[in-house]
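=== RUN LOG ===
request id: a7f3
mode: sequence -> structure
chains: 1
length: 144
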Amino acid sequence: DFFRMLSFFYTTIGFYFNTMMVVLTVYAFVWGRFYLALSGLEEYITKNTSTTNNAALGAVLNQQFVIQLGLFTALPMIIENSLEHGFLNAVWDFLKMQLQFASVFYTFSMGTKTHYYGRTILHGGAKYRATGRGFVVEHKKFAE
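=== RESULT ===
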């Protein structure tokens, strides 16, 4: 059953793995844009192509990542809250969270988790941590 396996994947390691992949993709995007800006290639493209007069294309290309990272990640939360509390309350909660910089906190929280998760995978930090309870599972009756 695919959905049961997907549920198992996301309740164990899948959430952190997918989060790590998203954060690494965002890093690749930001560093790619940074490289294009510093190398002069972006300036060369804008000067030597005929698309420089197309203001609509420039606006779409420059704001694409805002829509992808902002709207599409917040849309499921808004829909869920609108089903539970109503559309206006969902929009108000979303605006309140944006004013409290909840998205910035979430971004840095996921980045921190991804860093330590990746470091654990690369350097082998996963091991058994003793809790002091022992290994034997004893079966006792409910009446005891």
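=== NOTES ===
The radius of gyration is 23 Å.
The mean pLDDT is 78.
=== END ===
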